[in-house]
Amino acid sequence: MLGLLQLLFAVFAIYSALQFEEGLRLIIPLGCLIAMLVVNRVDKRKSDKEKSRKVFLQSEIDRVSKKESTAIKDQDFFTIESLLWPKSELLLIDAVHSILKDLGFKICAGIKYQSVDRIVKIPESQITFGVHILMSEEEVEGNHPKIHRALQFEEEKKENEKSLIIASTHIHLPLSERSQVNHISKELSGFLTRHNMSLITTHHLYELWQKAKGKEIDIFGFFEKVYSHSGSTFPLKGAENTHFSSFNLPVE
């Protein structure tokens, strides 16, 4: 887009040099040249920012995994950034959709239920989740609008369906610090248990995605356990990534 703008300035500069009066033949091309330099600088700054953001994202993932991870593919970069550092809830929903689809789940928009973001089903089973996707700058509180929507889904859902909340929490914290903080309030923890709902963080979902791609875990087996448990499921504070608060990961 910025390249096209530069081209337009160049064309207008040439046109003005050929068609305008003598006084304007110098002023307008000079103005266009200055504008082209400004656009070029903005374009370079934007490109440098994108490169530095990608390096930062890669280093954050390497630090939290305590090893050098495989280089992030260009097509995965935006998805991962939207999952772990979402700029909007809509981008977060798209990122979660892409990852669950990549993991092999059957996923669709909640057409029958306006209270859910996605309906997710484990293939060749009756296990179905009504997924509510939210973002929070800190821990998730019980008064979050998506929690109220989850309660609405509980009143509408079928017998084999269960509410699953996927939350991107502490979105401004480095990944290495997110395992040291609480992701949900005590009030919400009790609420999830009482209503037989489950919650995982997007950081946890990212780790599951990576382990599943490396054939380290049975991802469907993990979500079968999520289905049979209530409450939150994410790494314990200060614990290694392979241990989780509700149950251990099924190994393939």
Our count of helices gives 9
Main β-sheet: number of strands, strand sense, barrel status? Answer: 6 strands, mixed
Class computed from helices, strands and strand pairing: alpha/beta
Average pLDDT, all residues: 80
Q: What's the CATH first level of the largest domain?
A: Alpha Beta
Query: What is the CATH topology assignment of the largest domain?
Result: Restriction Endonuclease
What characteristic shape results from the CA principal axes? Answer: elongated
Helix % is 40-55%
| Relative strand content | 5-15%
Number of strands: 6
Total domain modules = 2
Q: What is the string of helix and strand elements? A: HHHHEEEHEHHEHHE
From the 3D coordinates, which CATH architecture of the largest domain would you assign? Answer: 3-Layer(aba) Sandwich
Unreliable stretches: 235-249
What Rg do the Cα atoms give? 24 Å
Q: How many angstroms does the end-to-end distance come to?
A: 47 Å
Largest sheet: spatial strand order? 1-2-3-4-5-6
Overview of this protein structure:
This protein has 252 residues and is of the alpha/beta class. Helices cover 53% and strands 12% of the residues. It has two domains: 2-65; 78-232, Restriction Endonuclease. It has nine helices and six strands, in the order H-H-H-H-E-E-E-H-E-H-H-E-H-H-E. The chain has a six-stranded mixed β-sheet with strand order 1-2-3-4-5-6. Strand 3, helix 5 (145-156) and strand 4 (161-168) form a beta-alpha-beta unit. The longest helix has 44 residues, at 22-65.
